[in-house]
């Protein structure tokens, strides 16, 4: 018998510290953005998305692979009144291809009347092995897509200089990678994510920064949120978990826990211990006294 | 006439519009987008846009992705 998953909170239920996130003119109710790729079945995907509490899902644009083995399209499994669809440009290795794919994706969403029509998760990749972003191509594509009316959410590395350039080019959100896509290594360089956050939010504290890629488990999501990221985007960590639906619940909790922890403000790290119980009144021997 | 559709050569009658091609591919009911020679043909123009011999066409739809 499968383990019992916790229940998804009722729609509209809001935890302390839970607040919507503005990205351009869009408002995300959940700070977890979840991909729709690599699930064992469409039914598992649908259940996992539900458990994750997300209201934005990413999709890819591909040649004529409209129907799965059962002759059903992805869109038949996505409630468009519930989820805003964010098309990506995954698989593009230069700015020109990414721009083409972004325009194709927008054209499809316009037909669906989806409010995500004019936004894009921009990926311009450097190579197939690392799937790390090509910063020059990303910058070029950002400029052109912004000029073409797109709300650009740009996947980038954790380099704060590059992140600043992409913001200056007009991206509505910069999305530094925690680690390579699908690698499950979590946030490899938290110090750089903090530098990105500080650079991007300097004088512009509400500028949305989304940690995109590399999440392996729920603690990675919590860690990214604790650093002050506004949201986390993930896919494989849920889709390839042994129990994707259970992991989706975990991700939802971790995202909220990390956000609350960030807002609550952590204690400073100290080299030595500080007792939680008073010294005064200890009845026994205390070393050094 | 010969056109290339999603990387494959196809023989199509003349005239054929982008819309007619999409229907021929049995994709007529679903949401898909098309470009001809690397330029988007907006969906509103599909019924009027005529294909020409040698055109390179891409017809795409949405799939799962991250």
What does this structure look like?
The complex is a heterodimer of chains A (about 290) and B (about 70). With about 290 residues, chain A is an alpha/beta fold. Chain A has one domain: Aldolase class I (TIM Barrel). Chain A has 8 helices and 10 strands. In chain A, strands 5-4-3-10-9 form a 5-stranded parallel sheet. In chain A, strands 6-7-8 form a 3-stranded parallel sheet. Chain A has a two-stranded antiparallel sheet with strand order 1-2. In chain A, helix 1 (about 40-50) runs parallel beside helix 8. The longest helix of chain A is centred in the last third of the chain and has 21 residues, at about 245-265. The N and C termini of chain A lie far apart (about 60 Å). The model of chain A has no long low-confidence stretch (mean pLDDT about 90). Chain B has about 70 residues and is mainly beta. Helix content of chain B is about 10%, strand content about 35%. In chain B, strands 2-1-5-3-4 form a 5-stranded mixed sheet, with no helix packed on it. At the A-B interface, strand 4 and helix 2 of A face strand 3 and strand 5 of B.
């Amino acid at each position: 018998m499968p383990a019992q998953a916790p229940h998804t909170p009722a729609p509209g239920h809001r935890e302390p510290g839970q607040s919507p996130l503005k990205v351009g003119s869009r408002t995300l109710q959940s700070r977890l953005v979840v991909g729709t790729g690599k699930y064992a079945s469409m039914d598992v995907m649908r259940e996992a998305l539900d458990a994750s509490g997300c209201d934005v899902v990413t999709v890819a644009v591909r040649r004529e692979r409209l129907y799965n083995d059962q002759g059903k399209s992805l869109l038949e499994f996505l409630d468009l009144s519930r989820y805003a669809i964010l098309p990506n440009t995954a698989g593009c290795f230069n700015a020109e291809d990414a721009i083409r794919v972004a325009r194709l994706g927008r054209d499809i969403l316009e037909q669906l009347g989806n409010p995500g029509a004019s936004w894009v998760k921009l990926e311009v990749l450097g190579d197939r092995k690392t799937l790390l972003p090509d910063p020059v191509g990303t910058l070029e594509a950002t400029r052109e897509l912004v000029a073409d009316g797109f709300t650009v959410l740009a996947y980038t590395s954790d380099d704060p200089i590059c992140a600043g350039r992409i913001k200056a080019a007009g991206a509505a959100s910069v999305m530094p990678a925690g680690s390579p896509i699908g690698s499950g290594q979590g946030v490899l360089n938290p110090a750089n994510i903090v530098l990105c956050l500080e650079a991007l939010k300097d004088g512009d504290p509400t500028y949305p920064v989304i940690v995109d890629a590399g999440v392996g488990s729920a603690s990675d999501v919590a860690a990214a949120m604790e650093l002050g990221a506004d949201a986390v985007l993930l896919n494989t960590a849920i889709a390839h978990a042994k129990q994707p639906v259970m992991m989706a619940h975990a991700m939802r909790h971790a995202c909220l826990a990390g956000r609350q922890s960030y807002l609550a403000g952590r204690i400073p790290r100290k080299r030595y211990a500080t007792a939680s119980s008073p010294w005064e009144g200890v009845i026994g021997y205390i070393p050094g006294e | 006439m010969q056109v290339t559709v999603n990387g494959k050569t196809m023989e199509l009658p003349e005239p054929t519009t982008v819309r007619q091609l999409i229907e021929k591919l049995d994709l007529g009911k679903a949401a898909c987008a098309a470009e001809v020679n690397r330029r988007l043909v907006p969906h509103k123009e599909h019924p009027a846009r005529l294909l020409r011999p040698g055109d390179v066409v891409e017809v795409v739809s949405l799939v799962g992705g991250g």
